[in-house]
Design brief:
heterodimer, A: 263 residues, ten-stranded mixed beta sheet, two-stranded antiparallel ribbon, 7 helices, 24% strand, B: 829 residues, alpha/beta, seven-stranded mixed beta sheet, 47% helix, elongated, disordered N terminus
Amino acid sequence: MSKTKPDLRRMLLRLPHNRQDYAAIMVISELAGLLGADLVGTYVEDLTVHELASFPNAREFRAGNWQPVSARQLARDAALAAQDAERLFFKSAAGHRSNPLFRIAKTSALSQEALADDIIAVIDPKNPIERATHQFNQFVRTAFSSDASILLMPSRIRDASGPIIVFATDPNDPSVDTALDVAGPTGAGIILVAPEMSNELRKKAQDRGVGLSLGQAAFRNEEILLPPVTTGSLLIMNRRYVPNRPRSLQIPTLLISAKLRTV
Amino acid sequence: MDTDQHSPLSELRSSLADPGGGPVDAQPSGALSPQQLYRRADASALNFKTTAELAPLDGLVGQERALGALQFGTRIRKSGFNLFVIGSAGTQMLEVVESMLRSTPSDRPAPGDWVYVNNFEEPRRPIAIQLPPGRSMALRDTMKHVIDDLKVALPALFESEDYQARHAAIDQTFQAKQGEAFSKLGEEAASANMALLRTPMGFMIAPVRDGKVVPPDEFNAWPEPDRKAAQETIERLQNELEQIVRHIPGWEREHRDEIQKLDQKTALAAIDQNMTEARQKFSDVPRVVEYLDTVRGDLIENTALFLSRPQGELGPAVNAALAETSDRYLVNVLVCHPPKSDSAPIVQEFHPTLANLVGSVEYISQNGFLVTNFRLIKAGAIHRANGGFLLLDARHLLSEAFSWQALKRTLRQREIRVEDVARFLGITSTVSLEPDPIPLDLKVIIFGDRLLYYLLSAYDPEIAEFFKVVADFEDDLDRTAESEAVHVRLVASLLAKEDLRPLDRDSAALVLEHAARLADDSGKLTLLTDRLKDILVEADFWAREANHSVITRGDVRRALDENVRRMSRIRDRSREAILHDIALIDTTGRRAGQVNGLSVLELSGYRFGRPTRITCRVRPGSGKVVDIEREVELGGAIHSKGVLILSGFLAGRYALDVPMSLFASLVFEQSYGGVEGDSASSAELYSLMSALSDVPLRQDLAVTGSVNQRGEIQAIGGVNEKIEGFFDICAARGLTATQGVLIPKSNVQHLMLRQDVIDACAERKFFIYPIETVDEGISLLTGCEAGTRGPDGAYSAETINGLIEARLRSFARVLEHSQRARSHEQDET
């Protein structure tokens, strides 16, 4: 029996440090459940950070002030942060069929282990300092250098309702099947931004009870030009249209791995 | 020593005694004629075939005094001139007053509606607003419409691409400002081979090389100048980071302000469109316009209430709470009158609890807490009646905790304040509301019986302050040919009102006569229409059973008889006890120191009379008449007073020159319940006089009437029932043509006796004797002359008074002899 949908195995999530960012995990967990992927939440314990205490006059910026720091304190903080992350992760992921799994990784090599049938979830931190950290930027860079699909979660999720927008120039793009997987159980419609809509695709959507309509988009230098406001619950497109991290997003965006194929 | 034993008078006593109990000669002289026992209706004034021909009358017949008070009290518009309507139960005061108020055009302006709205500045103190009659509902609907519209319009506006684009632009500007600052810091750090690093709980700046953090060992191995330079760079970057972070709250504030401005600008269009329409509708009510302006301001400030749509576990609860919050713009209609109403409201409160009277603040439970808001303020009867009349039953009002005080407080303050009974009792510490008081313009009319009013007057001086007008309803009216005709019209009105068959002329006459019986006076007609109505309803029932198109005399008679029959079980048992000699009552013969007294029992509105044996025993003593009923605490105060009067009578009449040396005991034989009233005091006196004189009393006579210290017989109540009670016993045993009842002469006017009693009197088988003085009575009861003092100041020895005085002197001598002997014994000791 031939498979007609891409097989996405895992949703790999680097757990955020900031509690405010955990709201995004609810959406990520739901999406993982819909796609049949396991949700793997990883708390990254960066060992190099522990060594920083050995620097002369080492200070840490916390609670709005610079404070002296020790290796012992950093180790204790790391243990507490990991516990907190685990608790918040399971609380946020509960209620969806995403089989949440928590783990602690000693290195920041999370994105390096990702394969083409994995999704790396990147939560854009609400706190701008988080966005400016070396680890976050390195994580994003590595994610985009991997073969995996990437889920970009904006720092502000405006509305979880609305249609799913799919950009696909090729009707056989796995983005379309991924969108159908998500739209089927949720009852959301799909706006397909594509040159044309094949009869086969139309029938596939009809079989799954998904409303499918054709939309238009502007392209510049072969990149899709996103409007300032995108009304929808999820944006899905192939990673080849978005080679780099977009600057600002209003809705969750799933960039399907260019190496993933509908079988 | 009792010297009478050897006096010639003992022969008199012996001749009067009747050991065999046989009949004695009848003494009908002075007995009343049958015509004096019952006053028939004046048929000549009843000029109709049936009452259907009569024009109806309201219940104000014979109530001129009350009517005048009502007209004055309802029209005067000054503080404190509220009405207290008093009268006996059954006068239908309430119905009459309500009917009068509804039929009389009021000179009061139609009162306005009242609503409570939220006080946005101080939610604990909801604002009361008055509107023209009928407009409150319009305001409520308008506000609901406005809010419903905004619930749709505002989210739509805020979801519009235009708004989202503007919002996103502001967000981006803000994020860009922060991002730029941190990017700059990052670039600066990168150019200096430094990096901002996330620690488990904070941030650090550390040197990097080739994208990796320089290990501390390596750093420590750097030349001193390099390490120092790196340290300085780190410190500079730390300062810059601190500066940027310090700017963040300010940027966030700016961001928030920008968003708020955008929100307000966006919302204003929708809000103003709706509010302008509402404002125009109520432009003639400045207070409402003022309120609408406040609402507009609050809506602009709190647009977010209409936009929040939380998801997740707490979503429904939070959404419900938000919906509740948006309800604060709604209007609580407290009082709404019909539009274009030109009459003052007339409100009757049957259950005047504090809450039903002055309104209440209700609570609802939310997550285990009791909460309230202005929409849970409920109107009381005073709110609904404000501007008109509030009708209350005094007994109901006084039996409800706090209500009477609350009513007076409201009248004094001249404003209605909603009071929370739970707070009075201290059973709740929940935060409550203090709604704006509402100005009071109310006429309160309280209905109650006289006793209640006079007790209230005695114990609550404030009643005179707040209820200055008393309307006292008469219980009856004088009976004349004219008043009988008017009364029949009143009866006709009752028949029409109750949808009953009309009375024919003969039955109307019987109803009139029954009205006189109910009034306890042949010269009066009762105005207690409730009791008349009950008879009419029952007579109508029997007329229907007999297929009569009109109520006949027989139907009325049957109604009266059936009514008595249903209620008379106790009377029959009492009579049976006498006839079976369980309760000892003689109806023939003579006995010394024993007399038949008469009492009346009233059970649930039904009265019947029954004879009671009263006996007296005497001996020398300290001048005391002992009332055994009082000694065992079965006698009431009035009864005891009656007995004490006997002592006064004896002391004032007999043996004035010697100390009173009598000990007498009086008792109501076989009386096991309480005895009250002084209507048996004359009977007790006859018994005492008989015991003292040792002259037997006739047992075929019964006695009723009170007596004063001068020996005058005074009127009593229930004379008809008392006579009938004794008659029934005598008739059951067989009338002897000597039996009868002694009644006070002043009670003759009250006689409305049963037909069988009248018939027996007409046939001279039974007699009613009107008595004015004790001497008259004792003569009739003994057959001996009472006696008067002669020129020598002494009573003739052959008279009752003479015998009594002689006995008392003998008691005095016995007592004196006894005291001397005791004194002598003490001297010898």
